From TrEMBL:
Organism: Sulfitobacter albidus
Entries under PANTHER family matching the protein: ATP-BINDING CASSETTE SUB-FAMILY B MEMBER 10, MITOCHONDRIAL, ATP-DEPENDENT PERMEASE MDL1, MITOCHONDRIAL
MF GO annotations: ABC-type oligopeptide transporter activity; ATP binding; ATP hydrolysis activity
Gene3D superfamilies per record: ABC transporter type 1, transmembrane domain, P-loop containing nucleotide triphosphate hydrolases
Pfam families per the UniProt record, alphabetical: ABC_membrane, ABC_tran
Key words of the record: ATP-binding, Membrane, Nucleotide-binding, Transmembrane, Transmembrane helix, Transport
Keyword Transmembrane helix: yes
Protein name as annotated: ABC transporter ATP-binding protein
ABC transmembrane type-1 domain: residues covered: 41-327
GO CC term, one of those recorded: plasma membrane
Entries under SMART domains matching the protein: AAA
Bilayer-spanning residue ranges: 39-59, 79-97, 155-178, 184-203, 264-289, 301-326
Keyword ATP-binding: yes
Length: 614
């Protein structure tokens, strides 16, 4: 039966992905929880019914006390049927109604609400640009994705479990006291006013305090994960102490912000106990006084006492629930800093897929400085005819990788445009653009999955024979067969470790090469594609690469000039500008930067950090 409630909402149901999600908490929350609206309403109604039953029971207890005055025989003869009906209600109907309420909260809302938020948040974040990820810690982003859904779930839970229930209970209590004697309402109203004032005081502080505490916790995760992912650097430079200190700063900040949050709770708890004391003395004392004057029955005193004692235990719970509500709202607000960020690099409205006919690339006045006013690329204008093979050289930081990343639209160029076969790349869909481009990078990180899955990333529908053929071409097949991971998976099924750390740099590079071979895209970008290989493997791969380049437009970045000397055309970049353009012989004859690089290479390496300005 509970499965019915569990399946009431599909957390993975379709929804329009928003490039600019609402920036304010309430609209954001409402937007995310749209599929739950019906269930929320049903739960709210059920909570009110359950609270009404609770108040009704107390009222009935008072009535029973009053009835007892009439003697056993009269009570049984006159009210026997009524008592049996109430008993049947309490034993059978009440558990069903309360069970419905609990099942809606526990089974329909709780597991699905957090899942929905986590799923949508992850999808939203995954759509962010490369630049967006470069500006934050992966650990902090992950932490927000992880801690926001349970916090949002808690907010909803408290709303229905505590807040709506207690409101309904309070109203019921007021009605009951008024019925018994309207004067009994006075202490309740005074108490409620003071209680509201206390809540306001506490809640105005809890929200910001918990947001700060949550922010500090995310910062701890960011720093800690940063150290773990860069554990090689930490060990190599023997920087344990520094890393400890770096993390400790964040941990201490988390402690400090948590302390501030906890202070509010302590003060709040103390005030609450005092307030409740007032309530008990006020209502029960007044009821007793009324009874002494003969204007209230014993039953009224009993019901008023039971009600206040119940309110007394409930207020602590409500206050706790309210503070949990606002504390978790603070966590959600903090998570929104990541989840609700607008996606700045999006497909243009009505963008069509890139239609690649020849593979001609044009750069028109392209400038990009990563928002800093310098560095990157400076006014690059260039036409690469279809099928031309370009070698791109220049010192470190000259802007070579920037050019390649702009071509892939990892960033939107600050000025100028890029056309592929006459189509501006900002006007076509990003997916179609990247599908037409194969890229092998200098820093070839792999996904922590099997070798097979990593190679398949290039073309998910490829069959086993195609995977193996690609691995053969990339000179990777033999070493892949020897791989084994700690779980005992071997060969193509072996997992490669986070970012591929369990493989050598050359092995990683060959697997990324295999996946680009499998992808077989008409435009090929090679950013130091063979930099991690020994010369024997590199020689073998060079011939594969030349085969791969057949009929494709290619841009290859290399510091080892021998690997690009045979390209159709070589471009020299310096401080973001193209300063030389021609084939190997022409550039040598020009006797400029390229000739200097070539002359300085011993065994084919460009000493890129030296100042070799002509
Ligand atoms: N994500 C980024 N944010 C800000 N600045 C960046 C970013 N990436 C690169 N840069 C800056 O842009 C300039 C060009 O960098 P780029 O990576 O394009 O150089 P490169 O020629 O490829 O260097 P290398 O040969 O060392 O790979 C550098 O000054 C670099 O600091």
């Amino acid at each position: 039966m509970l499965r019915f409630f569990e399946n009431l909402i599909d957390p993975y149901c379709d929804y329009p992905a928003e490039d600019r999600p609402p920036q304010r908490l309430f609209p954001f929350f409402m937007g995310y929880s749209k599929p739950f609206r019906g269930v929320f309403i049903a739960t709210g109604v059920m909570s009110i019914i359950v609270a009404a039953i609770e108040v009704g029971l107390i009222y009935y207890m008072g009535r029973v006390v009053d009835l007892l005055e009439q003697g056993p025989q009269v009570v049984w003869d006159t009210y026997g049927a009524e008592l049996i009906a109430v008993a049947v209600f309490i034993v059978f109907l009440r558990p069903i109604l309360q069970g419905l309420d609990v099942a809606l909260i526990n089974n329909a809302i709780m597991p699905n609400f957090g899942t929905l938020i986590r799923w949508r948040a992850h999808r939203q974040v995954l759509r962010q640009s490369v630049g967006w990820f470069e500006n934050d810690f992966a650990g902090r982003i992950a932490n927000r994705i992880m801690q926001t859904p349970p916090a949002a779930g808690e907010v909803v839970f408290q709303t229905f479990d505590a807040i709506s229930f207690s409101l309904a209970y309070l109203i019921g209590a007021a009605i009951l006291l008024t019925n018994a004697d309207p004067r009994l309402l006075i202490p309740l109203v005074i108490w409620f006013a003071l209680y509201l004032a206390l809540s306001r005081w506490a809640l105005s502080r809890i929200g910001p305090a918990s947001q700060a505490a949550s922010d500090a916790r995310s910062a701890v995760t960011g720093r800690v994960v940063d150290a773990y992912t860069n554990i090689h650097s930490v060990k190599m430079f023997a920087h344990h102490d520094r890393e400890e200190l770096y993390a400790k700063e964040a941990i201490e900040e988390a402690r400090r912000t948590f302390q501030i949050e906890q202070r509010i709770f302590t003060v709040m708890d103390m005030c609450l106990v005092a307030l409740n004391g007032l309530l008990i003395v006020g209502v029960v004392g007044w009821a007793l006084a009324l009874w002494m004057q003969g204007t209230a029955s014993v039953g009224t005193v009993a019901a008023a006492t039971a009600l206040t004692l119940r309110l007394n235990s409930m207020t602590a719970w409500i206050m706790w629930a309210l503070s949990a509500f606002f504390r978790q709202l603070g966590v959600v607000a903090e998570g929104m800093q990541t989840i609700a960020q607008p996606i700045t690099l999006v497909d243009a409205p009505g963008a069509k897929p890139l239609e690649l006919t020849d593979g001609r690339i044009e750069l028109d006045g392209l400038s990009h400085h990563y928002g800093r006013g310098r560095g990157g690329l400076e006014d690059v204008t260039l036409t690469i005819p279809a099928g031309q093979k370009i070698g791109l050289v220049g010192r470190s930081g000259a802007g070579k990788s920037t050019l390649v990343k702009l071509l892939l639209r990892f960033y939107d160029a600050e000025q100028g445009r890029i056309l592929i076969d006459g189509q501006d790349i900002t006007h076509v869909t990003q997916d179609s653009l990247r599908r037409q481009i194969g890229m092998v990078q200098q820093d070839s990180a792999l996904l922590h999955r099997s070798v097979r899955e990593n190679i398949l990333y290039g073309r998910p529908d490829a069959d086993e024979a195609a995977i193996i053929a690609a691995a053969h071409e990339a000179q990777a097949h033999d070493f892949i067969l020897d791989l084994q991971d700690p779980e005992g998976n071997e060969g193509y099924a072996a997992r490669v470790g986070e970012r591929g750390v369990k493989l050598s740099g050359g092995q990683r590079q060959r697997i990324t090469l295999a996946r680009v071979i499998l992808k077989d895209a008409p435009i090929l970008l090679l950013d130091e594609a063979t930099s991690a290989l020994d010369s024997e493997v590199e020689a073998a791969i060079q011939s594969t690469l030349y085969q791969m380049m057949e009929g494709k437009t290619v841009i290859a970045i290399a510091h080892r000039l021998s690997t690009i000397a045979q390209m159709d055309r070589i471009l020299v970049l310096d401080e973001g500008r193209i300063v030389e353009d021609g084939d190997h012989d022409a550039l040598l004859a020009q006797d400029g930067l390229y000739a200097q690089f070539w002359a300085r290479q011993s065994g084919g390496f460009l000493n890129a950090d030296e100042d070799d300005t002509p």
